[in-house]
Amino acid sequence: MKSKYIYLLAIVALFYTSCKKDLGNYDYSPPSEPVIEGIRNANIPALIGDSLIIKPQVSLAGADPLKDLSFEWRILLLEELRELSFTGYPFKMLFNLGTGERAAKLIVTDKRNGLIYKYDFKITGTTQFSTGTVVLSNEGGKGKLSFVKSDNTVLANIYETLQPGLVLPNNPVQLYYSKPLPYQLLSKEEYWIMCNDASTGSVIVNPSTLFFKDNFRSQFFLPPSTVTPGHLETFMGTISHGVINGKLYVGVQSTAPFAPDYGKYANPQPGDYELSPMFTKGGSFYLGYDTKIKAFVVFDGGGSYLGTNYGTGTATTLPFNPKNIGMSNLVYFKASESGTTYAFFRDETGTWEYRFNNRLNEGTKEIVPEQKRKFAGSSLVLADSKWVRNNLNVFYFSSADKIYRYNPINEEVRALDANFGGKKVSMIKISADDNTLTVGVEGALYSLDVTVGKNGNIVEAKTINGIPGSPVDVLVRTN
């Protein structure tokens, strides 16, 4: 029993001695972490040929950030499968890495303890032509390309100014933007200047420099002898499709987006037809007008020609037969993907309005005729009238120096307030939100306010003067 007391006293003495000797500091404070502001997930614009300086705000409590931290900047060059590495703070370089978005990373190392902090961001290479408005115009039959800066400064006829001795083809038709895929740095980016010029054809322009890049014939695997443009549109982000030489062409999608052949044209979609330039791509169909048989014709979603192989509903009496319209002069046609659609035709008696229910996206694959009538604005329609439709099936069309609004529900035809000083309207485009009309007349571009309650008054602050000739098409670049 006595021995047990001795052991117990020994253990107590041991604990007492241990506690007495533990003079540690239990108010421990870990080293401060760096605070980097304005860099994480940022997208930093970089003008090619200009200095790029990246200087995020850096703080480090209780220490000197420039002394106790090291900085490494990495920029991914995807096309070369390597990274560039720079050290120091701030980041400085003469930016020469080309246009487009590049992944980048800032790596900060705390030299006091070896801890590493990483911040992902992006750098987007730009040129003076990355933001602004590109204008294709017709000056006496000759194509002209101009660029309007964000402050409305006009660089008129910039294509020829930058490249003395080079001229665009004659009879410009359309300015088409072949966009790069947002997630694919190496996918191509081009402007196609589509012109109805049998001797020269159309041209491809570098959008970063506005320099000539190639003849449009290079877009074909086997170029046709002549290329007569109708109208082109974009689907799937960067693939073009549309009417050329009266045939439907669809860009090749079977290669990788960065491959040179991606988006090129093979043969036209086979079939015995002659398409008007106006067409619509729905979810599972193409709808166009065949000027050869004077009828609406369809293609499946992949572009295979189906002709008039569609239904017309169950009614025994139809206001018109979509498989036999009988008119060759299609004035304007832009189908809704489904539901009510209007088409306007012109003959020696005037302009006619056709209305039908588009059910081509449905299993029945039908074009159901609903009404045919003389267009209420027939006397105003001219051979060169320009047309657009908004998302509610309200139409705007030009007649010489005037623009009219047409509502097919009540057949109201109303002149807009805009006064162009007697100059003929050469172009109309409508914004995606239906609130603005961009109108071209000789020497100028106008923005018209067509929001609810407004009747197309000119927004003076957005008027652009100094355009050579008459605008044919415009493209607004925001980055």
Give a description of the structure.
With 479 residues, the chain is mainly β. Helix content is 6%, strand content 44%. The protein contains 3 helices and 37 strands. The strands form 10 sheets. Strands 2-9-8-5-6 form a 5-stranded mixed sheet. The chain is elongated.
Give me the secondary-structure topology.
Elements: H1 2-21, E1 35-37, E2 43-47, E3 51-54, E4 57-59, H2 65-68, E5 69-77, E6 82-87, E7 91-94, E8 100-110, E9 116-126, E10 132-139, E11 142-148, E12 154-155, H3 158-162, E13 172-178, E14 190-195, E15 203-205, E16 212-215, E17 229-235, E18 239-244, E19 247-250, E20 275-281, E21 285-290, E22 295-300, E23 305-307, E24 330-333, E25 339-347, E26 350-359, E27 366-374, E28 387-389, E29 395-399, E30 402-407, E31 412-415, E32 425-430, E33 436-441, E34 444-449, E35 457-458, E36 464-465, E37 470-477
Parallel strand pairs: 2-9
Antiparallel strand pairs: 1-4, 3-7, 5-6, 5-8, 8-9, 10-11, 10-37, 11-12, 13-14, 14-15, 15-16, 17-18, 18-19, 20-21, 21-22, 22-23, 24-25, 25-26, 26-27, 28-29, 29-30, 30-31, 32-33, 33-34, 34-35, 34-36
Concise synopsis of the structure shown:
This protein is mostly beta strands and 479 residues long.
Fill in the keyword field for this structure.
five-stranded antiparallel sheet, 479 residues, mainly beta, single chain, five-stranded mixed sheet, 3 helices
Q: Terminal Cα separation, in Å?
A: 91 Å
Radius of gyration: 32 Å
Profile the largest sheet: 5 strands, mixed
Give the spatial strand order of the biggest sheet.
Answer: 2-9-8-5-6
Which regions contain 5 or more consecutive residues with pLDDT less than 50? none
Report the sheet-strand fraction.
Answer: 35-45%
The residue fraction in helices comes out at under 10%
How many helical elements?
A: 3
Average pLDDT value? 91
Characterize the overall form.
elongated
